[in-house]
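Practice problem 4.
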């Protein structure tokens, strides 16, 4: 989503392609623009704790940002 935004793809196109709500795309795009990679970490929420720790989440984000799919496309 962030990569598509950086390449100039409109929120409406991203939301349709990824089957997400336009508000969700706008939220994450804005957070990334304001806070860069730090903005990709979601805020703590009430309820059950996350099942993935900060290091594993950082690895996942790093992998997503720096790899290509088998067909050569980006995420």
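Answer key:
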């Amino acid at each position: 989503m962030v990569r598509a935004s950086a390449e100039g793809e409109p929120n409406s196109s991203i939301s349709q392609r990824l089957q997400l709500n336009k508000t969700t795309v706008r939220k994450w795009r804005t957070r990334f623009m304001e806070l860069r990679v730090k903005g990709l970490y979601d805020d703590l929420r009430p309820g059950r704790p996350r099942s993935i720790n900060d290091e594993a989440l950082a690895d996942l984000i790093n992998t997503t940002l720096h790899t290509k799919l088998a067909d050569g496309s980006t995420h």
